[in-house]
């Protein structure tokens, strides 16, 4: 296919720099630049935003973001083999791409991004969920980002967007929907990647809410949902009994039947329960 920016096609870039994907790094590359541009567009208007990208690899999504007008891209890449290819992209877009070699779980980004900030990434599958939870649970809210547009395994995407009563509903849905508005914006089959993963993938877009959807203390909500979904087949009076001896009184106070199971309890009800527990302390 024709390039979107005058740079070589990604297959040529990968061959030139010897960038075969490494399973240990969770790498699965998208080589279709039309597709990476589509993912970039799903992040919204980029011209007035800095973009944080994690795991750019050979730079396919990076090029899509820059071609779609991102004000500036800061890309964090752990694999040193990819740096020369990314340097070529940076040279093609002077002053608009900064590449940081490092682990996104530990790299210090302070002072490198100017708000508004959008995070857009084809996340390595082995760290995707951990990064999402970190971005959703900062000590202060609103966070430094205004939106997340992230690639996940399709099953993880279902867990992020699931509603009470769905099989995929759990702690991840609670955390994501408490402080953000998530939706699936694109689904991709395995053959969209090189090498093809064993599962389908999906892009999830999350807009940060100005404040939590319902009042609750984050740490208490995390404790409640960890206990409830840690034993999701048990009735709540059993799964939550370790939180307080009078858990049934708290459940009754917020209108949750003690015999209910976690997957049928709404986000609002979980927040109300967390509030009730905090009020008793």
End-to-end distance: 63 Å
Characterize the main sheet. 7 strands, mixed
| Contiguous uncertain segments of 5+ residues | none
Strand content: 15-25%
Rg calculated over all Cα atoms: 21 Å
Mean pLDDT: 95
How do the helices and strands follow one another from N- to C-terminus? HHEHEHEEHEHHEEHHHH
Care to describe what's here?
- The chain is α/β, with parallel strands linked by helices and 281 residues long.
- It folds into 2 domains: 10-208, Vaccinia Virus protein VP39 (Rossmann fold), CATH 3.40.50; 218-279, Orthogonal Bundle (Helicase, Ruva Protein, domain 3).
- It has 11 helices and 7 strands.
- The chain has helices at 10-17, 33-41, 60-67, 83-92, 128-136, 154-161, 171-179, 218-230, 236-239, 247-253, 267-279; strands at residues 50-54, 72-77, 97-101, 117-121, 147-153, 180-188, 201-208.
- Strands 3-2-1-4-5-7-6 form a 7-stranded mixed beta sheet, with helices on both faces.
- α3 (60-67) links the parallel β1 and β2 (72-77).
- α8 (218-230) packs across α11 (267-279).
- The longest helix is centred in the C-terminal third of the chain and has 13 residues, at 218-230.
- It is elongated and about 65 Å long.
- Pfam families: RrnaAD (PF00398).
- Keywords: Cytoplasm, Methyltransferase, RNA-binding, rRNA processing, S-adenosyl-L-methionine, Transferase.
- It is found in: Cytoplasm.
- Its EC number is 2.1.1.182.
- S-adenosyl-L-methionine binds at residues 28, 30, 55, 77, 103, 122.
């Amino acid at each position: 296919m024709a390039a979107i920016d005058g740079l070589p096609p990604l297959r040529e870039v990968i061959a030139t720099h010897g960038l075969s994907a490494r399973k240990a790094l969770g790498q699965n590359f998208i080589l279709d630049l039309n597709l990476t541009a589509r993912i970039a567009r799903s992040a919204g208007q980029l011209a007035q935003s800095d973009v944080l990208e994690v795991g750019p690899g050979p730079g396919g999504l990076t090029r899509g973001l820059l071609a779609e007008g991102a004000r500036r891209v800061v890309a964090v890449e752990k694999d040193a083999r990819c740096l020369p290819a990314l340097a070529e992209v940076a040279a093609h877009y002077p002053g608009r791409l900064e590449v940081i070699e490092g682990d996104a779980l530990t790299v210090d980004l302070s002072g490198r991004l100017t708000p508004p900030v959008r995070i857009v990434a084809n996340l390595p599958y082995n760290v995707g969920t951990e990064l999402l939870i970190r971005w959703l649970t900062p000590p202060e809210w609103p966070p430094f980002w205004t939106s997340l547009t992230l690639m996940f395994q399709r099953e993880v995407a279902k867990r992020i967007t699931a509603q009470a009563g769905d099989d995929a509903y759990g702690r991840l849905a609670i955390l994501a929907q408490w402080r953000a508005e998530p939706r699936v914006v694109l689904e991709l089959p395995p053959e969209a990647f090189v090498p093809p993963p064993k599962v389908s993938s999906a892009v999830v877009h999350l807009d940060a809410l100005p404040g939590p959807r319902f009042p609750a203390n984050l740490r208490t909500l995390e404790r409640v949902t960890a206990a409830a979904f840690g034993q999701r087949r048990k009735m709540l009076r059993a799964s939550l009994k370790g939180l307080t001896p009078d858990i049934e009184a708290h459940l009754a106070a917020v209108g949750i039947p003690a015999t209910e199971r976690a997957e049928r309890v709404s986000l609002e009800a979980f927040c109300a329960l967390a509030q009730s527990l905090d009020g008793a302390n």
